[in-house]
Design a protein that fits this description.
Length: about 160
């Protein structure tokens, strides 16, 4: 907890096109949270992200649930945080595998984990089962929330309804 009695908050996010990054920055501002970008050790290229190509990197990762792309850096001290917002774009109806890599690296015991997503058309509920598997130690794992088009007031209201 901070001196103000509000738990310390982190917004961790993966963004391929920039949309999730913009949402994450707005959310971090609304939450008074630290910001951490989940960066792949091997960055995705435009060709890697071509969902219409069954041989693109993202398509191959989608079809193999055991794939865990490496993350380039780590959160300094995850123990410091009470609420962790985890953001990602929706790929094939759920979170990208690199988000699972990130979640599997930490112990979230006693923490609220609040996933949020951006999407061009799919909902976020397909992520819930996979996130539970990747984050079994969470004190409380909330359903993924689509944040497309949410303004600062709506983000602030959501933050206060879920964060410690």
């Amino acid at each position: 907890m901070t001196d103000s009695g509000i738990g310390k908050r982190l917004v961790a996010y993966f963004s391929a096109s920039g949309a999730t990054g913009r949402a994450a920055r707005a959310l971090a501002q609304a939450a008074g949270a630290d910001l951490f970008e989940i960066v792949p050790e091997d960055p995705y290229t435009t060709a890697d992200l071509d969902w219409r190509n069954r041989r693109s990197r993202s398509s191959l990762e989608e079809r193999d649930p055991s794939v865990r792309p490496a993350v380039a850096s780590a959160v300094g001290d995850m123990d410091d945080y009470d609420t962790v917002f985890v953001g990602f774009p929706i790929w094939w109806g759920h979170e990208p595998a690199i988000v699972d890599t990130f979640l599997e690296q930490y112990d979230f015991s006693g923490k609220v984990v609040a996933p949020f997503a951006t999407s061009g058309g799919s909902g976020a509920s397909g992520s819930d089962r996979r996130l539970r598997a990747a984050c079994p130690t969470a004190g409380e794992l909330l359903p993924a929330k689509l944040v497309n088009g949410m303004g600062a007031d709506a983000l602030g209201t959501w933050v206060e309804s879920v964060a410690r």
